[in-house]
Amino acid sequence: MTQPLKLGVLISGSGSNLQSIIDNIEKGALTATIKIVICNNPHSFGITRAQKHGLPVTVLKHDDFRTREDFDEELIQILRNNEIDLVVLAGFMRILTSAFLKAFPQKIINIHPALLPSFPGTHGQKDAFEYGVKFSGCTVHFVDEGVDTGPIIIQSVVPVLQDDTRETLAARILKEEHRIYPQAIQYFADGKIIITGRKVHIKDASETPLMALHNPSLTGF
Ligand code: GRF
Fold first, then answer.
1. From the CB of residue 32, how many other CB atoms can be counted at a distance below 10 Å?
2. pTM higher than the cut 0.85
3. 38 CA to centre of ligand 1 in angstroms
4. Average pLDDT, consecutive stretches of 10 residues, N- to C-terminus, the chain (221 residues)
5. Domains and CATH numbers, the chain
6. Which residue's alpha carbon is at the smallest distance from atom 7 of ligand 1?
């Protein structure tokens, strides 16, 4: 049997994506193990979630470090000590330095609550909602030097409904985040991901049927 993929999960907030990873591991759907959860916010609910499942958690307050580089150096050490195979950013609200990226080449992934390259940055759901798009969604991607610019692994599309609020749209997107993040990690665990430049190819992926989506629906056209 193949060894479970060793994950280092970095969080800052509610940790619902961490929870979906934990749940999928516990039910045997995801061949991975969480070696360490690192959190830069001592008030994050994600810490409680991790502890509840007996996972090791390190709280690392970025304010305690003189520079961004010093903070990242500590992160690198902790992740190396835990011999992790993949760094999973799950709502981790810090920009990483190039030293960090170099320490884990093609081994850092992130989830973003919009259909990249549209609406990068901290307020993906809100920005898409205010723009008035008819579809939005979420994206799992590799992390590179830019903000939400790395090669895309998987995306999920959701409609924006006419009576949506920012909150109802964000909730619809979050539900999909909880599905595509474990899926992306499993692709990685299975060695199915091939990156060529900006393009990610998933070996043996079953692709979406070739059909167009419309929102609102067409009236017979
Ligand atoms: C998610 O919407 C994620 O896409 C974004 O931050 C949020 C984190 O949510 N990067 P949670 O902490 O996993 O609940």
1. 23
2. yes
3. 15
4. 90 98 98 98 98 98 95 98 98 96 98 98 97 98 96 98 98 98 98 98 92 96 96
5. 1-105 (3.40.50.170), 111-203 (3.40.50.170)
6. 91
